[in-house]
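In the laboratory, one determines a bound structure by crystallizing the protein with its ligand and collecting diffraction data. In a computational setting the workflow is compressed into a single prediction: the sequence and the ligand go in, and a structural description comes out. We illustrate the idea with 4'-deoxy-4'-aminopyridoxal-5'-phosphate.
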Amino acid sequence: MTDLSVATSLAASTLDIDAIRNEFPILGQTVHGKPLVYLDNGASAQKPFAVLDAMDRYYREMHSNVHRGAHTLGDRATVAFEGARETVRAFLNAADTRQIIWTRGTTEAINVIANGLAEKLNPGDEILVSQMEHHANIVPWQMLAERTGAKLMPVQVTPAGELDLPSFDSLLGERTRIMALTHVSNVLGTINPVQDLIARARSQGAITVIDGAQAVPHFQPDVQALDCDFYVFSSHKLFGPTGIGVLYGREELLEAMPPFMGGGEMIERVSFERTTWNTLPYKFEAGTPPIAEAIGLGAAIDYLQSLDRPAIEAAEQALLNRCNELVETVPGMEVIGTAASKVPVMSFKIAGLHPSDIGTLLDQQGIAIRTGHHCAMPLMDFFSVPGTARASFAFYNTLAEVDQLFQALRKIQRLLT
Ligand code: PMP
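The predicted complex, in structure-token form:
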């Protein structure tokens, strides 16, 4: 063991992982007769009782529509729903709940922003993205570029899977109107130095959009310290329910942006001659919102905040270190994404094996990973692979599960190559 892995293992050992795992009922089951080893957290994370119970309680005790103000249940639902917004505000350290907009997830949030910025773009303007973006942070900008005549400028990545900073510097310029980058890569696990890149982009007058989908499950961003214009994430990767996500935005920009969808809730006054918009954040929240889901996300954040965050981060790094130590025990295994600063995500290939076969055979052992292009086809092209196998960890995973993964990989490698 290296000094670093000894240190992280010691810090991690202050966490009671068994007690934590007991909070996640789904983890206790067997799959194909084997105890479930869930290593697909990057795709979607599991939910603790705190989330399940909060949503159940909402439907049992207070379900009603929000913001109608006509009766007690409606008031209770509104208080819980807006309380969740305040929880998200505090989690991101945003200045005001007006800046916290509910969306269906990261994908919808980026579409809301891209749509809202259309009027700011002219032909020849440039939108900086990177080669390691999820399709959710590429396609909406491509659609916007097509609408406005702007151009998409992809920043290169290095063979280790870090952003190529000389490439960033060469592409950032006075034509850059928008910089849209992922905080953490869903394929590589790379943590990008976004605070520095935001400062550089802002000094050129660019609007900055950060995709935090893979960052928030591992660490807490501070949107004021980052000084970004927009920060977005999905609840379901943060141990909360599906169907809801968050768009944080700088207030002046949100005020200036047109709404994404029209309908109830987002209006101040409607007449056939003229309709005016509601105040923030409701201008962007047409229709009945996902009330139970907002409450569930609030409960997920409260649950996370009740844990020892530094110990969790250390435990996650210990998982990653153990993976790195065991790679050489599987002949022909190669990790894609070896950045110096990473969350516990391991994309890999094994010579002679197709990623989807690896996934299927691991599933037979009760081990769930993801295989394929991970909605990052340009990155697959860069690494010249059709896809990868990816094990992505959460704080409830154990070192024993890492060992089980590698034991299974060694077996598959022996049998099939
Ligand atoms: N960005 C990144 C980095 C992601 O990992 C994902 C989900 N895999 C998304 C965006 C899209 O998130 P959602 O499907 O929840 O909208």
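The chain has two domains: 3-31+308-416, 52-305. Keep in mind that any predicted model is a hypothesis to be tested, not a measurement.
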